[in-house]
Structure formats: structure tokens, C-alpha cells
Amino acid sequence: MEIENIGRLIHVLRGQRVMLDYDLAAIYGTEVLQLKRQVRRNLERFPQDFMLTLTKSEYESLRCQIGILKRGQHSKYPPFAFTEQGVAMLSGVLSCPRAVEANIAIMRAFVRLRSALVASKELAERVHQIEQTQISQEKELGEHAVQIHEVFAAMRDLSAPRRGSST
């Protein structure tokens, strides 16, 4: 599976980037039931910061966001959501031939996503700096415009004929 396609399967949940068990099962070429069975047998390898169990409301919200989850199409139980560390640990407990290869592709997708987020943050900061510079320059131009206006007014006053003068 291509890194770009894997990147589309990464979701943000509780402020963390995660992948869902059924997407990982498809990538690893195994059944969701088998994946969950292996995880349950090795729960000590999956602390809370490696794997999240979705609440019912989180699951419903995610179903709406993804838009492809139809009722009855997937398990009636909320999926496990694996963080980057959980995905790395998952390849160690699965005994399928594609696990290592798939895990490398998934790790690359997480790295690419992290790089894109850093780049977009840097770009946003640069845009903010440019906006601030533009605002500052507009203020200076406004002040200069007032001063130029005052100079022209003074020149008009000087060049206007004075009343009561005999010229």
C-alpha cells in the first residue's frame, strides 16, 4: 500500500494521531478478529498511550467523519485505535508475513504526516510575519501620507495670493 494511501487512514482522536484496527488488519493482510485476539493476549504491550478504546460517541463521530462506515458493515464493537507506538508494537505481536513490510510503510506515513504538520506550522508562522510586516508598513505609509498632505497644504498656503497685499 502506498504511503499516501496509508496517510489517509490516520485520524486524530483525543489529540493523537491514530489508526483503526480494521484499517491495520487490511494493511497487514489479517482478519480484524485475529488482530484483536493477538492484542488481547498481549495487553501488557499496549498501555493507554499506545492503544485507545473508542467510546461510543467517539465511534459515532468517527463514522460521520469518515463517511464510509455504514451500520452493520463493521463490528458492532468500537474499534481499537493505535497510536504510532502502538502500531510499532502491533507488528511484533502479529505473526503474519506482511507485518514487517506493512509496518515500515505505516511508520513512513506517520513520519511524512509529522513532517507535513511541521512544514505547515512553519508556513503559518511565516505568513503571520508577512502580515505583521504589511500592517506595519501600512501604518508608516499612512503617517507619510498625512505628512505629505500637510506639506502640500502648506505649499498651497504659501502660493495662494494673500488678501490685502498689493501685488
Structure, explained:
By secondary structure, the protein is of the alpha+beta class. 63% of the residues lie in helices and 8% in strands. It has helices spanning 3-7, 21-28, 32-41, 56-66, 84-93, 99-159, and strands spanning 11-13, 16-20, 51-53, 80-82. The protein has a four-stranded antiparallel β-sheet with strand order 1-2-4-3. Strand 1 and strand 2 (16-20) form a beta hairpin. The protein is rod-shaped. The N and C termini lie far apart (93 Å).
Descriptors:
167 residues; alpha+beta; Mlu1-box Binding Protein, DNA-binding Domain; 4-stranded antiparallel sheet; 6 helices; rod-shaped
CATH topology: Mlu1-box Binding Protein, DNA-binding Domain
Strand content: 5-15%
Largest sheet: 4 strands, antiparallel
Which class best fits the helix and strand makeup? alpha+beta
Shape descriptor reads: rod-shaped
CATH architecture classification: Roll
Low-confidence stretches: none
Average pLDDT level? 80
Put simply, the count of helices is 6
What is the number of domains?
Answer: 1
Strand order of the largest sheet: 1-2-4-3
Task: List strands and helices in order, with pairings.
Elements: H1 3-7, E1 11-13, E2 16-20, H2 21-28, H3 32-41, E3 51-53, H4 56-66, E4 80-82, H5 84-93, H6 99-159
Antiparallel strand pairs: 1-2, 2-4, 3-4
Helix pairs in contact: 2-3, 5-6
